[in-house]
Amino acid sequence: MAAWVVLLLLAGYAGGSQADFNGSLVGTTAAPSTFSVRNLGPGQGLSHSHALSVLQDREGKDSCGWERGSDSTGSTPTNASPFSTTAATPTGRELLFGGIRGFNAFFPERIRENPYKPPVVLTDLLIFNRPVRIGDASPLQQSLPFTQKIVLTHEQSVVFFRFSALNFRSPEKNRYAYKLEGLDKDWNHVDSSRRFATYAHLPPGRYVFRVKAANNDGVWNEEGTALALEVKPAWRLTWWFRGLGAALALALFGVLYHAKLRQLEAFSYSVSHDLRAPLRAIEGFSGILHKEYRDRLDDRGVEYLDHVRSAVKRMNQMIEALLELSRISRVEVARERVDLSELARETAEMLTAQDPGREVVFRIAPDLEVEGDPVLLRVLVQNLLENAWKFTANRRQAVIEFGRTEVGGKGALFVRDNGVGFDGKYADKLFRPFPRLHSRGRLPGTGIGLATVQRIVERHGGTIWAEGTQGEGATFYFFL
User: Fold this and answer.
1) Is the dihedral of CA 34, 38, 39, 42 positive or negative?
2) Distance from C-alpha of 154 to C-alpha of 234, rounded to nearest angstrom
């Protein structure tokens, strides 16, 4: 059996009669035993919620008379003024709805959905709520609808756009969606009463403002319109200013570096002349006392004199070490192929000859060749091996290794010993001048050796670090 349509006033269907509960229009499509209900009102395209009359055309479409006009369901409404609360009648294919000024007459089959996809145009551009005019100093060089890109300064960061869809068939029902690509993640949907968008304090960057629109029947123009927008950074944030700043910083660094070199040279001169002169006097007179007056001193006096001579000797060693560190910081680094294995073997032979009574095993890997300064690299190898020799002095059988291993996918050189080691939390202090992790009485030294090693490694563009355990030895790794 063919389905039939009844439009009810408000909420329901009651035995085929009309019921007006609160004025909402309900459409009911029903068979003798079943029916479905859908609520119709302004949200579904009708003019009002209070229907005064309902007519159905030959195609099954329903038209409603309102207090202020008429609608045809699924079509575009026609407005009229009130005539009577029930003034409505069909005349063949034509429907009539009355009003106090006459009546509306129309053919429902002639009312069609609007398929037009409306073009979208940008109509106004405002910056800080002031209209932007076309001009040489303006972001606009031609009419806004024909402009593809505008460029703003960082001071023009509050922008207002107004837009419109070129659909004039019930334009109040046009819908819009806009977003600023580069800032908005989703589309912003608005109706015809809010055809504008405002963006405040835009950060420097490139954006695209897009707008699309739908006509009165909800047909969208998805392509819409677009305007590229670039906000320039402040001058202090531009690449050229940063580049200039970097160049000035490098120039300043160069000036300070050379000034530091001159200071080091002056310091070296001062150490070699001014400091050594009184030190030589102390050494000379203490030597005379030791040679000519030692027999006249009691045991405590002799002990004090020996302390003075020992301190003078240690001071001389520290001055020599400081001068060496200063020289290493200033000398030009030559580059050639250097066999570190050969340097290590020569150092091992020298250390063994100085103290033949010690039992020390040297394990030196062959073919440890690098590019670097042969003089500085000899100092590096000597200091590391002498350091290992010193800190294994209390081992009955000491082992000192020099080799290569993989660290982080790169080949690292290392010197390892089984000496007294150190507490790992003090590893960062090892390469500072003068700090000591062990007493001078047990393990003598100037405290400059590892600082010199680090300076040589850094002059070659490398890095050095140490790992150790108290009582179990230490390992020094370095890249060149």
Assistant:
1) negative
2) 6
* pLDDT tens sequence across 418-450: 998 888 777 777 887 655 555 554 555 556 778
pLDDT at residue 100, rounded to an integer: 64
pTM of full prediction above 0.85: no
Hey, what are 412's tokens?
């690292």
Residue matched to tokens 């001169």: 269
For residue 208, give both structure tokens.
């695209």
Q: Do 328 and 320 meet the contact criterion of CB atoms below 8 Å apart?
A: no
How far apart, in whole angstroms, are the C-alpha atoms of residue 120 and residue 214?
A: 9
**Triad 30, 32, 36: Cα angle to 5°:** 25
Q: 385 pLDDT exceeds 50?
A: yes
* Strand 120-127 versus strand 102-106 pairing type: unpaired
d(CA 289, CA 295): 10
Helix (H), strand (E) at residue 334: none
CB-count exposure of residue 249 (10 Å: 0-12, 13-18, 19+): exposed
Q: Where are the beta strands (DSSP E) in 215-296?
A: 220-231
Structural domains of the chain in order of their starting residue, each with its CATH number? 4-110 (no CATH), 120-237 (2.60.40.10), 241-328 (1.10.287), 333-478 (3.30.565.10)
From the centroid of its chain, how far is CA 31?
Answer: 65
- Is 90 exceeded by the pLDDT of residue 178? yes
User: What size, in residues, is the chain?
Assistant: 480
Question: Who's near 396: CB < 8 A, 6+ residues apart?
Answer: 359
User: ∠ at Cα 132 (131, 138), nearest 5°?
Assistant: 160
Both tokens of 133, joined, read: 């005019």
Q: E strands of 204-335, at which residues?
A: 205-214, 220-231
Can you tell me the distance from the alpha carbon of 433 to that of 454, in angstroms, rounded to the nearest whole number?
Answer: 10
Q: Tell me how far the alpha carbon of residue 426 is from its chain's centroid.
A: 34
Neighbouring CB atoms inside 10 A of 162's CB total: 15
